Structure formats: structure tokens, C-alpha cells
Amino acid sequence: MNKAQQISGRTQTAPAQINEKTKRDAEAPPAFPDEIAHLADISAKIEDALQQAIDSVEGYDKEYRDSKRYMVQHKGEIDPHEMFQNELALRQIDHQGVIAVETRDKLAKLKESPYFARIDFREEAKKEPAIFYVGRFAFSHDSELLISDWRSPVASMFYDCEVGPAGYDAPIGRINGDLTRKRQFKIKNGEMEYTLESSVNIQDDILQRELSHTSEEKMKSIITTIQKEQNQIIRNEKAGTLIIQGVAGSGKTSIALHRIAYLLYRFKDRLAAKNVTILSPNKVFGDYISSVLPELGEEPIYGMSFADIAEVQLEGIIDFEPDKDPLETNDSKWAKRVRLKSTLDFVELVDKYLEEMSNSIFEPRDYTFGRFTAKCEWTKQRFDAYSKHPVKRRLQMIADDIFDRFETENYREDTLPRVKVIFKSLTSMLKVKNTLELYKDFYKQMNMPDMFVMPAKKTLEWADVFPFMYFQAAFEGLQESQVIRHLVIDEMQDYTPIQYAVMNILFKCQKTILGDFGQFINPNHLHNFEDLRALYGGAEVVELNKSYRSTYEIITFAKRIRNVAALEAVERHGDEPALIQCRNKEEELARIKEMIEAFEEGDKVTLGIIVKTNSEAKALYDRLSQDYEVQLISLESSAFINGISITSIQMSKGLEFDEVIIPAANSKTYTSDYDRSLLYIACTRAMHRLALTCSGELTRLIDGDTEEVRRGA
Question: What is the pTM of this model?
Fold first, then answer.
């Protein structure tokens, strides 16, 4: 063996030998007795700390209730000063109680699984190594650090280093030395399930174990299986904007969330959960990822969509209709308008227009009030000087300047005009009066008036919402965020350059942008990865090419549909994907029902039945829900639950299922290059098993030998 590897003190066995091995181990004395004893010692100390935390919570709760009762009972007798002091005391008790509850909850989680790794590190010039246990949270007892947080500097060696020369970056500088031991544990419900020790990297073995598990309703943390390249992304503190291009199943969303957890830990004095938000594609996906940060001991972060942002920014200004489904909208003129506004060229065209507008939109005249006059030349000079601000904001600043001049010159104390009156006079000198008028003029000046269509009065098409907001930013200004200090944008390929341009105005902060330009969902979006890089010229870009979600067989099959050259599968093997060809739709539905019944009798947790469009998903749900307990994941859905889900490819993005069935995989449903991308997305949702069914001719988008096609019985 090239790995000096042990599991519970024995050589690792093949899956077929697990049952026999478990029986032998149950009869044998436990291996690594030092670790068994250490776990017992740590567990006792955690139990002691947990009981103290419980007592503390109960104490603060009682103190709060007693203080509140006293204030109510003696309300008429307490003077205002004492009442104020009592209210301050209540707030202090409440604050301390919240901290006590957080401590209690963390200790309860530590009790279940105190740590997952041990590293022994000998610093240079020291004789003996120090022992570090690594867990979800740090734990100290009697002022001694017993467990290090996985985000701590010393813990980075577990992810980055093998046994041998090692080091880490501490606040005082680089610490070098040797890693003399590396162990990994699986502790569940306070019991040691296994221990691995290796002189080489042991994470592949743990990774295989974790990836073989069934899926869950919520995305879970990956702190026990973070790979070296992932760790570098998570601990990247310096990137102003970090762009993660990751293939399907590469764990990019999980990595981004762990990066947020790391930054919240690293910069806890100036970054809190309320300062972070994530833009996600839909509510189901937002619910699916909602547990990762709480699992790591951090407060959940606020999630929102581009539609949420538009509602806030355009409230009281203009309405807009929701985006249309491009797969179910047969309107070539609408599609042409969407395509135009999806390109980087469109942003450049808008920028050129707005630059010229800035120089010509304002035609100042002398402003006279009584014996006072502000000459048009002076006003134009001030307008140009404030060129970095929106037009209306520039006029407000000029109005303030004019008032200040008049006030300075007013030796006789004549009545002066109010600033609001001056501003109103200045706005009358504008060539256009509002953003909508300016936006319409843009298309007129570009000789393409047919590219702007309003579906109803004061209502925009979705494709015009963010271009309009970009004009609004230039003309009147937007409500820029003063709270958000880190913005996460998931599914980056789904958003157009003009949407990113607006985000850069609203959120002038650090950003983590992630997605896969190999998973385009909108055929009318013509931008690409290079366009995004052009928008973020100084961004740090990383690529993740290894897929962890699906088995080797599923990824190999997916590459037959869309040959992503960089896509690399983890060597985790399973069943070959099944291609099931049927004589007609009735037979196809019968085969799908057979697979549903097999799933219900099996040990897997989630089954995704993924069809091309939302309307097809609803139709299939209506048929299958009569006989089976299934859920429909639609645009209106808000949560992901275990069991059987029927959904469209659009709504399945970001999700994963133990098993996936793709109905109607025929030559009529999946025909174009765009369909190739859709089919690839659907296939890569599967973790363990994949089946494609069809009636009629199988889609020709599956390249290579198709002899494995099975006809329906």
C-alpha cells in the first residue's frame, strides 16, 4: 500500500466487506485508545460547560422576568429616572441572555460532534509538537484552548499540508515547522464512529464516505472535506471581487458560503451577518442553502433576488412585469429586444449616450431673484464640476451653492428664495423632465424605437427594468446600500452585463460572484464569461473543474451531451445511467411509475423528475400526484423537501437529488445546441442514479455509442 492508512486501527476494506468487518470490529477491542479516552475527557468538559450555559440562560430568563414584573407592579411608584435605569438594565439582561443562548446552542452542537481532525505540529526550534484538535467551533476549558475553530490560522494546515514540512500564517507572521501527525474522525452523537491516520493525505477517503451519503433537504457544511484548492478560495481575504467559475457539482455555492463564514470569523469586529447578502435565483434555492451558516455557528444572511432589488428601487416611480419564460414565449420581437439588452455592447452604447447627455441635457439661463443674479456661465461651470453625481443631484448642489452666494451677498437682509424654489427653477432648464423620457430618447437617438415597448401604462418589460435603473442612476440617483459590505451573486451566468452595472452602483463593496457559464438557462442572453471579466477588470478569477456531486459514470455520460473539456469527475463509481426507450407515451409513463415505486422501496431520500419547462412539470405533477406523494417545485415554491420532486430544468439549478429521471428525452424535445445545455444541467443534478426515458427517437444530443438503450417492457 502507498498509503499508511488505518480505519479504527485496521486496513481499509472494500464496500462488499463492510458488514463482515463491522462484525469483527464489534468483537475486537477499540483501536486508538488514546483517542477514545480523549473524546471521553472532552465530552465531559463540554457537558459541564453546557450545563453551566443552560443554568446561565435560565438565570438570565428569571432575572428578566422578575425585573419586568417589578416594573409592571410598581409602574405608578417608580420615578422617571429609576424607570429609565430599569429599562437600561432590562436591555443589558436581554443582551447577555442572547449571548448565553448562543453559547448554549454552540455547546449543544459540540456535544454531538466536538471535532473532526487532529494535527500535531512542531514549530521550528522546538523539540515537541503541539496537538491541535479542529472542530466547528473553538472550545476552551479553564482558560485552555482544547478545540480550534476550523477557520483559525492553525487549522489551515489540516486542509493545506501533508505530514512533513508545513506552516501557517498567524497574526504575528508566518509560522513554519513540521506536521508530525494528521488524524481525522467521524464523531456522531458523541460516539467515535471511526478514526483515520495517515502519513499522506487522508481526505480522499473521507470525501468518498461523505459523497456516498444520500442527499438532504438543506445544503450541509463541508468543513470535514474541504479540499486544498477550495480552502485557498475560502480563506481569500484580499480579493475585492472574487469570481468563481465552477463546473456542475464543484461545490461553488457551498465554498462561497464557507468563505462568508470565514470572513465573518476573521473580521468579526467590522463584518456581521447583517452586512452580507446573497442574490440567489429563486426562493427554493434560497431555502436550500439557508442552513449552512447557522450550522457553522453564524447567523443566517439575508437573501434576495434581482426582482426584490427592482421593487425597492422603483417603488413609486414605475411598475414592471415579471420575466417571461423564454422556453414558453413564442414572440420573436420580444426575444429580439431581450437579446439586444443582454450584451456588453448594449452597456457600452448606453454609457456613450449618457456621457453625451451629461453635456447637453442642461441648458442653463441666468437665474435672477430680486437684485441677485446667478449667471448661466457660472451655473454651467458648477454643473460640470459636479459631473460625478446624477443630474438631479447636481442641480440640488447648485441650488445650495446659489443660496449660499445670495446669503453671503445679502448685506441688506433682503428676503431670499428658498433652496427648493431655486432647484425647481433649475430643473425647468433640463431638456427632459424624468428618467422615462430620457430612456425613450435613448432608443430614438439610436434609431431603434421598436426596441422599447411598454406592455402597459407606466409598466416596463423585465428586460428594460435594469437598463431603466441604470438611467435612473444617471438622472436622479438610486438608493445605494450603506449596510451591505459583502455581496454574493450566485448563478452569475443568468444575469446580464447591465444588471451587473447596476449592482456596481448599488453595492460598492467586496463581492463573491459564482456560477457556471456552461449552464446557460436563457437562450436570449448573448453575453459570455469574457464579458463578465471585462466588467470586473481587477477581479480575481478562479476555476473549479472537479465535480463532487455525481458519480464518475454520470459525469462521463453528461460529457457525452456537452463535452466540457475541463470537467473532471471524482473517482466515485455507481450505476451506469439508464436510457429507456418506449413505444409510446403511455408506456413511458408506466416505466416512470415503476422507477418511482422502486425509489419508494429503496434507501435513497430524494428523487427529482426533471422536465424541460415549467408547464410540462405542472402537467406531469397533475398526473402523478393522483397516485404518489410528490411535490411540485415551481416559480411559486418556497422550500425544498425530501421525497419525490417534479420540476423544470430552470428550477432544478443548484439543487441535487439522489436519483434523477429525465422524461421525454427524445429528438423533438431536445434538438438544438441550447437544448444540449439544458439536458446537461438536468443530468448533473443526479448524485447516485440517472435515468432518461423517451417515446419515439432518442435525442441525438447524446453523442457516442447508444447500445445501452433499453426498450420498455
Answer: 0.87
